[in-house]
């Protein structure tokens, strides 16, 4: 695939100011002024008695890549379509770049949209599909040609101008969909599961391209997906939805290492979630008698029942041949191997403790387990830093 990146000093002069296009430059810088591009103020959406979105406040920063992540039916598309103006909220106001757009029709909101099913016009070729939004806005022929060329360069489709959508692969069709979206330099790009219809390898490739495009354009991008890996990989921040409410909004790191609830810990990555009781400052008790050092106990009174999270790749197998010293705040357990598998260079094993509890362990290279039979006794260790008491 070839694409030509235009260096900043080669960017074309601002081209046109036409109806619906406030910004004609092909490139936006990423150092946009601080502030919010999109704000939800008390937005909710109900259909009869059923609530698609409970009262929600949400702010998307200028230039940010924000993913809306969550299971099917959790309200992701509802949020996206309320931003776009395709769905009218039941309560609340939508503010775009400081202006309340609640009563502004979709076409006048200056947004670009990319859909899972591409939504290309089948009887038009690639050039005309991409030119379509410019023609609606009445740009001149020369402007249209330059903008379409620039957009096709950005998605690596120069030379495909005369193809019809049906003569292209799914990945190529979605590139056309993306070109049609960026061609009029929208101030916000909305994507609803854009890679949902593609196979894994293409998805990975297009993820990289979408990330690069976002970097180049510096546009605020809101991206809907139910794939947690995709959300963590792409986003500056992730808004995890559950049942029409925000479960947590934060950086991928925060969601992964500091989930606020069992739902978040469970939805994002694999986890050991351990029922425990706060014993003292910095320690919890679990499995009746065992004590574990934890990162955080603030806000929890002694005796409170909590859930404690330990990510499986934060647990190390103790290997006598290395004789690693035990940190004073480390946690240590011994159990027997009840399951073991080797996946893509990782060893994934389940350890059965004497209490009956299972612990999931993932390790990159562990000489102690490489040829270990089921039933073998194994000691593992993890730091208090990686032992997180969930807030709720
Ligand atoms: N037009 C509609 N009429 C009734 N219920 C709807 C309608 N659109 C969406 N819903 C409901 O609202 C909830 C949220 O939907 P949606 O935002 O599309 O979820 P997601 O995109 O996360 O899969 C779902 O329970 C869905 O069934
Ligand atoms: Mg949806």
Order of helices and strands: EEEHEEEHHHEHEHEEHHEEEEEEEEEE
Structural class computed from helices and strand pairing: alpha+beta
- Unreliable spans are 1-33
Number of helices: 8
Mean pLDDT, all residues: 88
Give the amount of beta strand, in percent. 25-35%
The CATH superfamily of the domain at 8-257 is identified as P-loop containing nucleotide triphosphate hydrolases
What descriptive keywords fit this protein?
392 residues, 21% helix, disordered N terminus, 6-stranded mixed β-sheet, binds adenosine-5'-diphosphate, 5-stranded antiparallel β-sheet, alpha+beta, binds magnesium ion, Rossmann fold, single chain
Q: In terms of topology, how is this protein built?
A:
Layout: E1 36-47, E2 50-61, E3 65-69, H1 76-84, E4 91-96, E5 99-100, E6 111-115, H2 126-136, H3 141-154, H4 170-182, E7 188-192, H5 200-217, E8 220-225, H6 228-234, E9 237-242, E10 245-250, H7 252-257, H8 262-267, E11 272-280, E12 283-286, E13 290-293, E14 305-310, E15 316-317, E16 331-343, E17 346-353, E18 358-363, E19 377-382, E20 388-389
Parallel strand pairs: 3-8, 3-9, 6-7, 7-8
Antiparallel strand pairs: 1-2, 1-4, 4-5, 9-10, 11-12, 11-14, 12-13, 14-20, 15-19, 16-17, 16-19, 17-18
Bound molecules: adenosine-5'-diphosphate and magnesium ion.
